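Shipment paperwork, digital attachment
Item: protein structure file
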Amino acid sequence: MGRASMPGYRTTQEDIAVAGVEHLVIRSLLDLQQYADPHGDAARAGLSSAAWPLFGRLWPSGAYLAARMAARPVRAGERILEIGCGLALASLVAHRRGADMTASDCHPLAGAFLRENLLLNGLLPMKYRYGRWGNGAHAAARGIRPSADAQWRSSLRNECIVTGRYELIIGSDLLYERDERGDLAHFIALHAAPDAEVWIVDPDRGNRPAMHRHMAEWNFERDEVPLWRAATGGVAAYKGRCLVYRRSLSQIG
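Attachment content:
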């Protein structure tokens, strides 16, 4: 059932089943016909009114990514970063299983929704960072203001921009724009450990070849795992693939 949570948008709670883990209760936007930016946070981040609600829904590619994280063994010492996390379903699944997980996004409400979903599921706090690539990324990060949620006010500062390197970087539905300069690949390379793997679940968008080319420039080899599901019981068909990029110290050297 939807409920008004802040002026300008309404939310709902969904019970999400992911094989291998307990069901998750996810707070999401009630629909995509919403926009709320009373303090100009989204405008400073370059988010249009049409793009603003996209973070707040669960998407099929994100569900596939969450399923892969549910099946992946938890590895001691492995640091994992989800980029463009939205509602961070894959991060929540990995966090519940004990992985060292950091979620990141550029949407001004992503962190607050993540905190709420952690509370709804009785989970311990999880790391969240502001993460953006492309034009104006650093300027937008300097301009982010504290969320209306008082418990996040002390954390949304410049030190909460994505830093460090990770052995696994994951994301879904990231190739929705042309990226001729390779900003996404550069962001990934900046935060990938010398021995690293990258998973991007993509619903067969047309920008995949350019991403392959840019990742090769950073010494990543690639593989593709086809993903397909027929329409059943009101669930739409899905066709896409998981793009897997790997590099090692030997490749860099």
